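JOB MANIFEST
job_type = single_chain_structure
chain_count = 1
residues = 428
[input]
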Amino acid sequence: MSFQSLGLSDALLKAISKKGYTTPSPIQEKAIPPILEGRDVLASAQTGTGKTAGFTLPLLHYLSENPKDKFRPIRALILTPTRELAAQVYESVKDYSEFLNIKSAVIFGGVNQKPQVATLRRGVDVLVATPGRLLDLQNQNLLSIKRVEVFVLDEADRMLDMGFLRDIERVMNLMPNKRQNLMFSATFSKDIRKLANSILNQPVQVEATPENSTVEAISQKVYRVAKNKKTDLIIKLISDGNWKQALVFTRTKHGANRLTKKMISAGISAAAIHGNKSQGARTKALAGFKKGTVRVLVATDIAARGLDIPLLPHVVNFELPNISEDYVHRIGRTGRAGANGQALSLVSADETLYLKNIEKLIGERIEVEIIEGFEPDPNASTEPIKPGQNRQGSNNSRKSKSHNSGRNQNRNRRNKNTNSRRHNDKRN
């Protein structure tokens, strides 16, 4: 199938050709026709499948074929969970609308709102936004989405993971009831289907690949290792393999910072990307990683969601995710566009259950290797570490618990002090 056969306008076909694309991806082939028909669509597609063009192209076709008044009210709203994804979707909208009389804008938190507001005042057809900044500007009466005709909820599963459900509901109430709704998610969980039922009207359901499938071009391997030897092992793998580019996942922001500092100390150029980083720092880190001046990008799941990094050769799970589906999202960032990729996981004893759940989800056993000098601790507990649990295990004496109580109280106080920061980060 060609893009011409999908019924897109000549201006869009010209933009597609300029980007070097000739054949639609599976998700584009399945999603574009029903969207052009005006149907609501529920699509399962992971990052890297071409999903952005899957909704951007038909959306732009509709707007250009049905022009409105000169004032340019916001006619299409694309809601994304992260700043990085919003910026990337906006670039896609700009590229594909190059030969159309369509104006677009992107708004997200972490940066000065004044330039964004100035752009909105000049009139915008397509708005790409994160929930927090959208609602902030709406509350200030600086924008209106009362005339939205097409609503796109991108990365819906991550939206729910980040606690945006209430914000999504508020956004829905600000738009007209009569509109076309498009919802894209990497998974079709119960929560996603429940959300879809509240948003979509008799939707067409499309899937790019079987749910939770892994990419065949990805080579997967597990290194069993003692927890306290993980940092030395990953530095050895990067150095001995002379890796030029690797995306490394940690569970926490602090863990990402610690690992980044250790790598820099070992002479490996690295940068961390997570919610506590400013937008400028995140943009700089990603740009350096893409240019090759940063060899290793250390990221948390939320910060990395939506990152478009072509031909990424290595993905490393420094820590396995406790949600098995996140493993699929992580490793799916390599092995794209027919290229080979390598996904490595450093697994300590307390992550054994996580590994079993991942293997159950993907339906295969992952090759295991143990490197001499980095052997796993035979005496370590295989019980998963729970949030807030003492990392030495749960068999502590009353004295140990008492010793930790003061520290836990201090941690609780710190958590209270950081609640507002976390809230603000969510809203960006």
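[summary]
The chain has two domains: 4-207, 218-369.
The radius of gyration is 23 Å.
exit_status = 0
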